[in-house]
Structures are given as C-alpha cells and as structure tokens.
Design brief:
This protein is about 45% helix and about 20% strand. It is α+β, with helices and mostly antiparallel strands and about 150 residues long. The protein folds into 2 domains: about 1-110, Hypothetical Protein, Haloacid Dehalogenase-like Hydrolase, Chain: A, domain 2 (2-Layer Sandwich), CATH 3.30.1240; about 115-145, no CATH class. Strands 3-2-1-4-6-5 form a 6-stranded mixed sheet, with helices on both faces.
C-alpha cells in the first residue's frame, strides 16, 4: 500500500513539474491536477467520465482506489522518453503500456484488458464459437494477454 502511495505521489509530482497531463482512474471517477485539452478529449472523444480537477496532490492521494494512471505526452516531449522513464520507475510494481501515439497507461502488474473482456464474455455466456465479430479492439487485447 505504501509503495503504491509513493509511486502515485511520484507520478503526480512529475505531472506538475513537467506540465504533462496525468489522469488517475479511481473507481467511477477520472481525476487530474490541472485542465488540459488532451484531458478534455477523454470525455468528448472517448466518452469517458468527465475528468474532475482536484486542487492538490494531497487531495488526489486521498482517493483510496487508483486503478490506473494515464499520461498524455505534450508536444514538447519525446513520447519514448516518457515511456522509458516510467517503465524504469515502475519495474516490478506496474506495467507501462503505450495506448496511442501520445498516451501511456500505468496499470497494476496483474491487470489485463483482454482478461477483463474474457471475464465479461464468460459472464454473458458468449464463447469463441459465438457469432460475435468484435468487442472494441478485443482481438488486440487478447493477443496482448497471450503474449504476456
């Protein structure tokens, strides 16, 4: 628990220091420390919950359950540098996943979108033999799950 808290603290302070947008996914909420056009796209383009701006790092750390962190590269940053930095810091604690050309997710080691989709499909009784063509980019996430 303390390791997670320290890791999250590092991420939030890095976000502020470098003015790189960071969104924390906490249960049903998306939280950030400052407004940014990239953050707004989560709601307007990707239909995520509207991101709430939290006034301080201390307030953000007060949220008990952070499932993942999402960093947006700004135009000045080399996306490889951000990913490399957080891959090194998170080694053995979390996985860093490049989601799009300008975003990385930091998720717990045991997190898997493919695994989550599989659980949902099993719950709904949908098997690989079903006439289901796709669930989002389901095939890609299953491929990622099999390769990990």
């Amino acid at each position: 628990m303390l390791k997670c808290l320290l890791f999250h603290l590092q991420a939030f302070l890095y976000s502020l220091k470098h003015s790189i947008p960071l969104v924390a996914y906490c249960e049903e909420q998306c939280l950030t420390l400052f407004e940014h056009p990239f953050v707004d796209l989560l709601h307007t383009l990707h239909h995520e919950a509207k991101v709430k701006v939290v006034p301080s790092v201390e307030d953000l750390l007060g949220y008990s359950s952070i499932q993942k962190l999402l960093f947006f590269d700004n135009e000045e940053e080399d996306p490889f540098v951000l990913r490399q930095h957080w891959s090194k810091l998170s080694e053995g604690k979390a996985r860093v996943i490049k989601v799009h050309s300008n975003t990385i997710e930091i998720v717990p080691l045991n997190a898997s979108k493919g695994g989550g989709i599989r659980i949902l499909l099993d719950h709904l009784g949908i098997t690989e033999d079903s006439d289901l063509d796709a669930v989002g980019d389901y095939t890609r996430w299953l491929s990622n799950e099999r390769s990990n």
